Amino acid sequence: MSFQAYLDAVEKKTGLTPRQLLELARERDFGPDSKAGPILEWLAQDYGLGRGHGMAMVHVIKNGASIDPKFVGTTGTHRDPKDHLWLDGVATKPEGY
Q1: Which one of 6, 24, 39, 48 is least enclosed by Cβ atoms within 10 Å?
Q2: What is the secondary structure of 33-89 as a DSSP string?
Q3: Is the pTM of this model over 0.85?
Q4: Across the strands, what pairs with 72?
Q5: Among candidates 1, 4, 8, 6, which has minimal Cα distance to 83?
Q6: What is the CA radius of gyration of the chain?
């Protein structure tokens, strides 16, 4: 499953776009220096997200929408066609994500 597919699934499970969840995380003072554990706990308690989907959001909360180029255009498990993720929701996602 691509990284983007994880984020798309997060939206489906929560009803919130990744960007909306990112904003809610910032309101809770989660950011680049936050530990994954408290973020995962919040996402599980408030939104029912499991570890895999939660870790996708942890990455976005801590690192923004960029992903490591080693995953771009590969055939590996977490491959993606672009080096950045679409955070504004499935309904507005351009073709090619």
Answers
A1: 48
A2: T--HHHHHHHHHHHH---HHHHHHHHHHHHHTTB--GGGBT--STT-BSSSB---S-
A3: yes
A4: 80
A5: 4
A6: 13
In the three-class reduction of DSSP (H, G, I as helix; E, B as strand; rest coil), residue 6 is classed as helix
The three-state (H, E, C) secondary structure of 10-48, written as one string: HHHHHCCCHHHHHHHHHHCCCCCCCCHHHHHHHHHHHHC
Structure tokens at 2: 């691509």
Task: Look at residue 78 and tell me whether its pLDDT is greater than 90.
Answer: no
Q: How many whole angstroms separate alpha carbon 30 and alpha carbon 49?
A: 17
